[in-house]
Amino acid sequence: MLSKKTKYGIKALTFIARQPERNPVQTSEIAKSENISQKFLESILLILRKSGFLGSKKGKGGGYYLIKEPEDIKMTAIIRVLEGPIAMVPCVSLNYYEKCEDCPEEKTCSVHKLMIQVRDSTLNVLGENTLADLT
Amino acid sequence: MLSKKTKYGIKALTFIARQPERNPVQTSEIAKSENISQKFLESILLILRKSGFLGSKKGKGGGYYLIKEPEDIKMTAIIRVLEGPIAMVPCVSLNYYEKCEDCPEEKTCSVHKLMIQVRDSTLNVLGENTLADLT
DNA sequence: TAATAACCTACTAAGTCGATAGGTTAATAG
DNA sequence: CTATTAACCTATCGACTTAGTAGGTTATTA
């Protein structure tokens, strides 16, 4: 299940990407328009800023703005930051690999075999979609 | 993240499918071989029996056995029973559809648009794999 | 009749999620 | 120079889920 954090994060980024001008967008505006708790959204946008997706400006007329072009922001990157690993099992994760303590060997593990395929197909979809595709 | 319930369930089913004879396999044997808490595994196998994947036999020489051929058991079916919806968001789920309370319309929702693609590719992988493929 | 193994019910420690509360800091307007 | 604005930061919390544990009962076989 996708967490609300990730869900709201994607919605917020899309909202910002849809702006005709590149002016900063305020958290309150996004929260209102997308029906998101403003405080919760604040923490999400903060993560996205610290991860290099967004820039920010304080004070009146401030807000958040995209640093890169929407075409250059892959969904894999966004989801890895907000949701964590894309793989459903750590032993098939490319970026967060971890050995299972119970499995003697991965080669003969049925779960491993299946989840590698799931990971690859998911990775394929998320890698081909950019923020621009969701606008 | 895949729950241990599902992970263990798949491992157990694979273990049973690997048996040369169709004799019942005991929970204790699977638990020992796959490093799973026996009590926890019991509850999982019970679910799989009630869902029609396994048959059971009590008393000495008893255990669990496959009801259908491994080739006829799709991974989609197993995962739906143990893990629940395959879709990452209820609003794109085929079997457990639920409207988002925050979204005004799904057509313009970026998360919806993306997660439909993820669902389809995952469904494709899990639908093409049967228990026999993981043996 | 004893042993075996499935079956059933209830409970729990630990962790995560989605928020809320209550501030501080920096930029702008007047 | 002061007030306002909006990002930024820290702490806390209730509700829920997960992965088990405990302690039995029922049905089958030897």
UniProtKB/TrEMBL annotation, chains A, B:
Keywords: DNA-binding. GO terms for molecular function: DNA binding; DNA-binding transcription factor activity. Gene3D superfamilies: Winged helix-like DNA-binding domain superfamily/Winged helix DNA-binding domain (1.10.10.10). The keyword DNA-binding applies. PROSITE patterns: HTH_RRF2_2. GO terms for cellular component: cytosol. Transmembrane segments: none annotated. Pfam families: Rrf2 (PF02082). InterPro entries: Tscrpt_reg_Rrf2, WH-like_DNA-bd_sf, WH_DNA-bd_sf. It comes from the Bacteria. This is Rrf2 family transcriptional regulator.
